């Protein structure tokens, strides 16, 4: 024990967590989207106060699963390299040629320009932190993977939404997943780190490896709302409480969505200011611009 410091090891009554059928129902609804309290997952709860937060989360009636989305893990760093779809190459990419393939270290919480690989990148710590004051509107991080053969077909490989979803003949025509703005999360979750849930908006014509899991929406308003919530300490708390080591689509589908309209201008302005860091975000900024952003300010 450090001299001069003394740990407080006295017990506290809020550390006593009483679990009854109603609290099991809250756990089941919050984490499993189910009313079956007999099979509720017993997540990491170390204080009775945590149930107060979970009750608030449980008050949401709308979830990601209620919307039309596509959740993808992108390119597999082993299988898709072996198949010749992508190859290892550390370069400054041309986004217009679909060369930007994100990995987990590239972004942080609502910061899509967090780190860039060094010229020689062979270890996980071979990344430099990007100083936003030194970059211009054209800046793009280096990538460690690029498309390999058949580049003309590369953007078509991962399908997006069906363009004719009401067609009963099953002759569906899909648009291209790569052309959407995506909210990407680091797939591996650090339960002991400063943040567990780490995500940012990734621009069109970019993709990612399976160290990232992303969500696309048909509507950029829903994407931006989700980006704001996905960057909040509320959902970070949610995912810490689950205690999972990896993020999967079933967990993302259980995230709440659908905040009141009166909060959206504030949420959108902050989310866009944090994520729109180069020219590739200009269409998103212009699409969602509201005059109300002028009236936003520091608390």
What this model shows, in words?
It is a single chain. The protein has 299 residues and is α+β, with helices and mostly antiparallel strands. Helices cover 23% and strands 16% of the residues. The protein has 8 helices and 12 strands. The protein has helices at residues 21-32, 49-58, 79-82, 220-230, 233-242, 249-252, 264-275, 282-288; strands spanning 69-72, 86-91, 101-102, 115-117, 127-129, 143-147, 159-162, 174-176, 182-186, 199-202, 207-208, 212-217. It has a 4-stranded antiparallel sheet with strand order 1-12-9-10, covered by helices on one side. The chain has a two-stranded antiparallel sheet with strand order 2-6. Helix 1 (21-32) packs across helix 2 (49-58) and helix 4 packs across helix 7. The model has no long low-confidence stretch (mean pLDDT 90).
Concise synopsis of the structure shown:
This protein is α+β, with helices and mostly antiparallel strands. The chain has eight helices and twelve strands. It has helices at residues 21-32, 49-58, 79-82, 220-230, 233-242, 249-252, 264-275, 282-288, and strands at 69-72, 86-91, 101-102, 115-117, 127-129, 143-147, 159-162, 174-176, 182-186, 199-202, 207-208, 212-217.
């Amino acid at each position: 024990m450090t001299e001069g410091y003394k740990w407080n090891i006295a017990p506290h009554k809020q550390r006593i967590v009483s679990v009854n059928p109603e609290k099991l129902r809250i756990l089941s609804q919050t984490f499993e989207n189910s009313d079956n309290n007999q099979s509720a997952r017993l997540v990491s709860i170390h204080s009775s106060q945590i149930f107060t937060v979970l009750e608030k989360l449980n008050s949401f009636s709308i979830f990601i699963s209620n919307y039309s989305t596509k959740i993808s893990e992108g390119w597999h760093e082993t299988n898709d390299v072996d198949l010749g779809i992508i190859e290892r190459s550390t370069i400054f990419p041309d986004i217009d040629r679909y060369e930007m393939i994100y990995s987990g270290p590239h972004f942080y919480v609502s910061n899509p320009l967090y780190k860039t690989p060094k010229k020689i990148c062979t270890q996980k710590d071979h990344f430099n932190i990007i100083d936003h004051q030194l970059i211009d509107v054209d800046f793009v991080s280096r990538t460690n993977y690029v498309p390999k053969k058949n580049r003309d077909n590369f953007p078509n490989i991962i399908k997006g939404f069906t363009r004719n979803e009401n067609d009963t003949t099953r002759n569906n025509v899909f648009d291209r997943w790569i052309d959407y703005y995506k909210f990407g999360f680091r797939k591996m979750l650090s339960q002991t780190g400063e943040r567990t849930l780490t995500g940012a908006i990734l621009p069109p014509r970019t993709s990612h490896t399976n160290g990232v899991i992303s969500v696309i929406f048909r509507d950029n308003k829903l994407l931006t709302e989700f980006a704001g919530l996905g960057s909040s300490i509320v959902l970070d708390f949610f995912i810490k409480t689950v205690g999972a080591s990896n993020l999967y689509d079933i967990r993302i589908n259980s995230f709440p969505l659908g905040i009141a309209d009166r909060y959206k201008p504030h949420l959108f302005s902050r989310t866009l200011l944090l994520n729109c860091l180069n020219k590739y975000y200009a269409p998103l900024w212009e699409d969602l611009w509201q005059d109300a952003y002028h009236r936003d300010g520091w608390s």
